[in-house]
Amino acid sequence: MEFTEAKQKFIQSWGALGSQWGINKTMAQIHAFLMISPESVSMEEIMDELKISRGNASMNLRALIDWGIVYKDYKQGERREFFYSEKDLDELAVKIAKERTKREIKPALKILKEVSAISAEKTQKEIHFKEQTCKLYKFVSKADNALEKITEYNDNWLGKLLKKLFR
């Protein structure tokens, strides 16, 4: 397989995976392209590479910047903006996990807490509903706490030591 074919296959595959971690296909493809680019890339280069419109590129770049996994780069003498991706895969995983938690787990926890707080002593259905939603709330809350601990390990000395030991 030659470089161009391998690059396209990677970008397409990463795009398909994007929907599984909470982003759209084009956003994931832009991220893939930036991840494998050795230098920062202009919006025009992104548009040419992926055959997308300026509006589509701009909207998805803004979203990737909001996620904290793509950054703007300014080059002296250039009027255009350039973009590059987080290259540290550990840092990338932490940022994606934190963003998904904020967008998916926290709202689910809020709803589960709210619906499990009903007073349910009248019917068997109500009692069952309350029991199940309370169990779900506790489970999701534990998962959220575990994710927070995992994503915070990069910031403490013990996490850094463990990371060095397991490399």
UniProtKB/TrEMBL annotation:
Keywords: DNA-binding, Transcription, Transcription regulation. The keyword DNA-binding applies. Gene3D superfamilies: Winged helix-like DNA-binding domain superfamily/Winged helix DNA-binding domain. The keyword Transcription applies. Residues 29-72 form the HTH arsR-type domain. Coiled coil: none annotated. Pfam families: HTH_5. GO terms for molecular function: DNA binding; DNA-binding transcription factor activity. Belongs to the GbsR family. This is HTH-type transcriptional regulator. It comes from Neptunitalea chrysea.
